[in-house]
Amino acid sequence: MDVCKSIDEIREVVKSLKSQGKRIGFVPTMGALHEGHLSLIRQAKEKADEVVVSIFVNPEQFGPNEDFESYPREMEEDLKKCEDEGVSVVFAPNRDDVYDEKKYIRIEVDELNRHMCGGSRPGFFEGILLIVNKLFNIVSPDVAVFGQKDIQQFQIVSRMVYEFNHNIELIMAPIERANDGLALSSRNKYLSLEEREIAPGLYRALNYIEKQIQGGVDTPSLLLKHQKSELEAKGFKIDYLDMFDKKTLQPVETLSKGSEYILAGAVWLGKTRLIDNFLIEL
Ligand code: PAF
C-alpha cells in the first residue's frame, strides 16, 4: 500500500495506475476508521480496480467552538485497517499541503444547507465542498463512495459534482449500525458508558416514526413532536428531528405517495452530537 503525503506523490501514483487502465475508486475520510468506513472501502472495491482512501481532518468544516482539536486521530491503526482491506493508496496530507494561509475563493451553498446540519453548523458544508472539490481534483477518481449517515453531505456533494461537471460517479453506501441500531460514527468514541446505553434511542425514534409513516401517517408533525419529547425525557437535547424532501432538503409538512423523503435527526448526548436518518419512499 502506498502512503502519499504530498499532492505530487498521489498524482504520480494515480497517473501510473490510470496508465495501466485501472479504474480508481475513492473514499474520502477524516480517519478514526470504523466498520462504516470499511464498508465504504468495500463498496469502492466492487466498483473499481484500485481504491484510494484519504485521511485528513479538515479544519475548514469545524466551527470555532467545535471538536477539531479533540477529533480522534489514529493514523497508525487507520493505515493498518486500510492495508487489511486491500486499499492501494492512502493520501494523508498535512494541513499546509492542502491549504494556503489565505484563501481568496470559496464555494457557497444555497438553500440545500439551510436546514438539517447546514442549519445548525454555519460554514460546515462550505468547508466540506472546499476539501471534497480539492480531493476530487487531486485524486481524479472514477468513482467516489460516501456514507448515507451524512446524507445531506451526499446530496450537496452530488449537486456540486453535477454543477461543476466533475466526471465522477458517486455512490451512497448504507448506514452501518451497531447491534443495538446506533449508527457508527467516529464521534461515538466520545460517549461515556452510560451515554452509549442511551444513544440508540435516536435510531429507535426514527424507526418508530418510519413505521407510522409507512402505516399511513401523512402529516407527521405531532408524531415528530411526541418523539422529540420522548428523546428529551431520555436525556437527549434535540438539534432537529424532521422530515425533509430528498431533493430540495427542505422540511415537509404533508407527505404524498410517489415521493422520496429523508427522515433525519441530530441530537446531543452530553458533549456528543449524534446524527442518523432513514430514506423513506412512499
Ligand atoms: O464525511 C467525512 O468524513 C468528511 O466530511 C469528508 C467527506 C471526508 C470531508 O472532510
**How many strands?**
9
Integer count of domains: 2
Give the biggest beta sheet. 6 strands, parallel
Whole-number radius of gyration? Answer: 19 Å
Question: In DSSP terms, counting alpha (H) and pi (I) runs of 4 or more, how many helices?
Answer: 10
Principal-axes geometry comes out as: globular
Give the strand order of the largest sheet, numbering strands 1, 2, ... along the chain.
Answer: 1-4-3-2-5-6
Name of the CATH architecture of the largest domain: 3-Layer(aba) Sandwich
Which blocks of ≥5 consecutive residues have pLDDT under 50?
none
Residues in β-strands, percent: 15-25%
CATH topology of the largest domain: Rossmann fold
Averaging pLDDT over every residue, what do you get? 97
Task: Please report the distance between the alpha carbons of the first and last residues.
Answer: 44 Å
Q: Which small-molecule species are bound to the chains here?
A: pantoate
Q: What is the C-level CATH assignment of the largest domain?
A: Alpha Beta
Order of helices and strands: EHEHEHEHHHEHEHHHEEE
Query: Structural class, from secondary structure content?
Result: alpha/beta
Name the CATH homologous superfamily of the largest domain: HUPs
